[in-house]
Amino acid sequence: MTTLEAAAGRTDPHRLGHDRESPYRQRTLGHAAGGPVSKRIITGYGFWIFLLSDIIMFSAFFATYAVLVGDTAGGPTGRELFNLRNVGLETAFLLVSSFTCGLASIGARAHSRPWFYGAMAATFVFGAAFLSIEVREFASMVAQGAGPTRSAFLSAFFTLVGCHGLHITAGLLWLLTMMAQVFAKGYRADILRRMLCFSLFWHALDIIWVAIFTVVYLMAVAL
Amino acid sequence: MSHFEPTSQPMHPSDTAPGDERLDREEIAEGIKSYLIGLGLATLLTIVSFFISGTTLVWEPSIPVALVVLAIAQMGVHLAFFLHITTGPDNVNNVMALAFGVLIVLLLLAGSLWIMANMNHNMASGGETMQMQLESGLEIHAVTATGVIAPAATTPVAARVPGVITSVRCDANTQVKAGEPCAAIDPGPYKIAADQSEADLKSAEAQLERDKANFAAKKAALERQEALSKRRAISRKVLAMSRKSVEAAQTQTEQDETKVAALTAALDTAKTNLASTEILSPIDGTVVSRNVELGQTVAADSPPLFVIATDLAPIHIEATISAQDSRAIKLGTKATFAVPAFPNRQFSGTVTQIRPSPQTNEHVATTDIVIRAPNPDLLLKPGMQATIKILIE
Lengths: 223, 393
What we know:
A: 2 domains; 74% helix; B: 393 residues; alpha+beta; 6-stranded antiparallel barrel; 4-stranded antiparallel sheet
């Protein structure tokens, strides 16, 4: 409700805009669809602000990487190190896990047990598969002497990709927590809001991965 | 955040906040459809990205641009179909926040890249000799030059016997192991010579045996006659004749022995010559040059047939710089260089020789320097063009 309407004396403050039959609902000038917006939308908005700040942090790592990508100090370059087959697998796993995460969030809102747990488990499996490929890639690079201390390029690479990997790890822990909470507390509104935040987080990680596989891996091979 | 708009719920509006109601069938189908479209589009864009990153079908400088465009498109797909950031009325705040976030991200990326590119541009102009005045007043000079990578240690392989080349197995850049045959000279004449020597030796040995037997028989006869002469049963003249003939037989045997020794030596030489028709690599390494053709007749003192560079050996780069620049360069000065084959790598070495160049370049006195660099991963190959940069404070 806006002050404009209040000034016009057409509001009903005691009903707090919950009344859907209100004739002003569709004609309000506020950002939301009229009346105090639902908690779900406010929570989502707040978490979205957090995600944007996280994306800004990642963009700083991307800028660092882009500046340092040529500074290999005589060490190996990305073209020599990266295995696109692995990256393709990682991308596929993360994309599918993002999809199943979406299904899980629908499952939660539809209060469907098998659907929610099945999709969450699939999300976990694909996320963990992604993480294991990444960990193996890191280990083989370190074993080749191409660890983060080798060159500025590799420091930037491990910081950027490793930070994404840490986010994925945190996301997997959160995923398990969400399953446990739904199991223990059911489809309560607050649990569903947390589930919303989790799915936003997981989708945002996939967006960051799109930037990583393009800027870090594909560019290294294409350039 | 959601595309979901409650419409047909019969329950009382104040029971549940909008957006918290349980989804009905239609909404579920709608939600799944959105995720499926998102998955399909994202998969398609990913496949196109991976495909064009490795393709040679398109103009190469356009690939990074295409990759960026595809990535942005895919992020849009994720935002719309997975995160449900749409233009719906619920989403105005989210879209505003996103726009602000994108603005910050763009400022951050563009600002960092622009500033750093500018700094790099100021630091690395492509001149022959650049000079930079640092704030402290310290002058840093970079001398650049070009040179060709050459192996630091090479082994020439020459023919040891003359003849016609019947096979050539090594060529420039062939990897060889010690003892591996590189070429062969027609062994025919050497085989005949060896067989001849062997036959000569055998006949000389037979002669020696016969003469030894003759000597032994004559010696026995003389001993008998000496015994008889003690009893004066034989004339001195006969005895003297016998002695002479024993001496003659002995001389003959000694001559035979000398001949056998000489022929044994000749056979050894012939066998060595025969073995020398196989031209073997003396070391593990890479053939740097081949100066022989199949069917060519080579002499024993002809120039080396092959030059082989030892593996794992350091490389040398010889470069010419102006005498003026060379004054600041000392033995042991660090040099970095790059080769076109590995554009993103920088190699380093040290200056190991500085000598005045015999020739002047457009009336400018020049100095030849030699840079020695390790080559542990064997990336540097002889013949590569190196662009050398030496920083002098």
